[in-house]
Amino acid sequence: MKASERIIDGLKQGIDRHWRYTKNLLNVKPEYLLTVSVADALTDGFDGICGLDLEIKLEEPTRRLWGSLWINAVGYKNYFPLVKQKEYEKYKMIRKGKVDIYVECNSESWIIELKGFNPSADEIRKEIVRLTQFIAANEQKNKCRGCYLAFPTLLDRTEWIESTVLAISGNAPFLISFESEKVETLEDPDDGMPVFYANCISIVCI
């Protein structure tokens, strides 16, 4: 099963769990239940990798991961002189904060970010820009093999999301794709939300 499929499965599980806890699907904030559920789904493995071989971390500081990518790519000896150079500004991460899920397996890693229901176009753009930085570090010669942004929506927003992704991707030297799954909750419209859409944007090395 692909990583994006595992992530969508975890997203669905997290929303179902949140509903059972609170009887409120729309207010999935903070996204902690989504994070835990997606991480749990990833423990089953993806892309031919056994889940037992994966190390999964939650809420890892962006700065730490960014430095780790560069050190892994160029080595300690070359990394610290690079930091001191004036042009190092171009190597800095645009956004700080933390990454929701960080997955490692030997010399490869993956990053997953999650959002609650109906994130704005601006939120999606900011996250994609940050995630593409991980992929592009050291001219893509680093251990990050893929980044993913997953979120649920009330309506089918495929056209809108695809246009947003297309506008950002341009001639990027990596592949950005989008998947969406319609989920029927079997809830009565008067009691809950009968349908929602689980979405995942994938950014992977070509």
TrEMBL record:
This is Uncharacterized protein. It comes from the Bacteria. It comes from Methylotenera versatilis (strain 301).
